[in-house]
């Protein structure tokens, strides 16, 4: 009798709820596969289910559902980037509004509603959302801090967002607060001071990305590594441009190719003791191995946008 009551009152309702949840996902997938074509501006459909409403009713599966929203957020941005490239559009990761990734924040928000201590959505939001909606980026980072006040890295992410937005005073305050969290490294206190005195410098940028490179989140590490290569390339291109300008002033003409300025470059000391690189064909190459090109009309060095893997290849240097 007790066993029948247990089956009727506990197991059966649990099976029905989980089956209904599975059916909802199955129906959502079916509708996505069979929906009629829409104009490009309406290609995203709204989330079929608000995951936060399931919190407390998923019989311990909250974390699993949060993982699902998290993985979908990664796939969502990946699909957007692949679709843009198939249309021969270069993606500027500093401004991805043209991709119209309006569902990224709801996906990350659902994941963190279901599992408020899930670190990956917060870090991913800090890296990607500033290029889509800065205020949403701030919101997801602040949510992370509210739910995890003793996690110093969440203050690091929020400080990073403010730094990206050039709100150096806000960044300084955030790093300062983070430095007071137990187990926070000395880096946080140093960054608070750097933001107030030298927030916009490449030295500060290198410090930020180098510290992010030492973190445990793979998405953050990959982004930091790309940004450090970008900073190296900016230093290299400034030096190459100066060498081109000096040669033009002396000879009254621009160089015929970049090899003409290589001897001058060998005398230049780059930051961080880096050195210029050449490939097997003796061409100057950027940190990703793509050859630098000579824009002879402007007498400046240019990126090989078809081959470089530098993140901000669309950005013009001032």
Largest sheet: 2 strands, antiparallel
Distance between the terminal alpha carbons, to the nearest Å?
A: 80 Å
Approximately how much helix is present in the residues?
55-70%
Number of strands: 4
Low-pLDDT residue intervals, each spanning 5 or more residues = 35-43
> Structural class of the helix and strand makeup?
mainly alpha
Rg measurement, Å = 25 Å
Folded structure, characterized:
The chain is mostly helical and 318 residues long. Helices cover 57% and strands 3% of the residues. The chain has eleven helices and four strands, in the order αααααααααααββββ. The strands form two sheets. The chain has a two-stranded antiparallel ribbon with strand order 1-2. A two-stranded antiparallel sheet has the order 3-4. Helix 4 (119-128) runs antiparallel to helix 5. The protein starts with a helix and ends in a 16-residue tail after the last strand.
Quick synopsis:
The chain has 318 residues and is mostly helical.
Q: Which features does this protein show?
A:
two-stranded antiparallel ribbon, 318 residues, mainly alpha, 11 helices
Compile the SSE list and pairings.
Elements: H1 2-34, H2 62-86, H3 104-114, H4 119-128, H5 134-147, H6 152-164, H7 168-179, H8 186-198, H9 202-213, H10 218-251, H11 262-265, E1 277-278, E2 284-285, E3 293-295, E4 300-302
Antiparallel strand pairs: 1-2, 3-4
Helix pairs in contact: 2-3, 3-4, 3-5, 4-5, 4-6, 5-6, 6-7, 7-8, 8-9, 9-10
